[in-house]
Amino acid sequence: MAFNALASRTVGLSTKSLTPFTRATMMPGLHQRMALHTARPLFFKATGSKALFGDNVPNPAAVPQPTANRMKGSYHWMNERAVSLITVPLLVTAFTYGAHPINDMLLGIVVPVHAYMGFQQVLLDYFDARRWPVISRVLRYALVGVTGLALFGCWRINTTDVGLTNYFGRIWNANKNKKNKEAAKSE
Predict the structure, then answer these.
(1) How far apart are CA 46 and CA 111, in angstroms?
(2) pTM
(3) pLDDT digits over 39-74, tens only?
(4) 67-94, pLDDT tens digit by residue?
(5) Which residues contact 54 (CB under 8 A, 6 or more apart)?
(6) What is 137-185 written as a DSSP string?
(7) How far apart are CA 43 and CA 65, in angstroms?
């Protein structure tokens, strides 16, 4: 009964609106669950670094730090922003005016470089060279290789095929063209 009085006073709850099953199962002991239990034992125990690492506790001062270069990060950030800003008018031009060889060639350079810079940041964030030296180096070389293949592929599409804008237009409308051909064949 103490819970009913407390609930109706604070929140305006009434046990009369609840079904008998809910009242029988939910209400008994609910006032005990509402109390603070500060003396409960922890479900896990905090472990010290000695327990985790043994005698080989890593010393942060012993980790080699990269050489300080205050301009490297700012140049990288400015280059990323410049490539992003260059991409916007190229895409708008491609959507507005359609295919043009100069615009297609610029898109074939800027889009892979933009993707390279984005994936490079992912590698820097998740595969730090100080923590993962071998994996970091392998992934960086793989990224350079894949970017080179993408640049070569864009160059081939632009020089020997229809150009990037028409190429992606064909891919975008491939399903529509297939349905139109099938409809024309059936007639």
Answers:
(1) 48
(2) 0.58
(3) 555 555 555 555 555 566 566 666 666 676 766 667
(4) 767 666 677 888 899 999 999 999 999 9
(5) none
(6) HHHHHHHHHHHHHHHHHHHHHHHHSS-HHHHHHHHHTHHHHHHHHHHHH
(7) 38
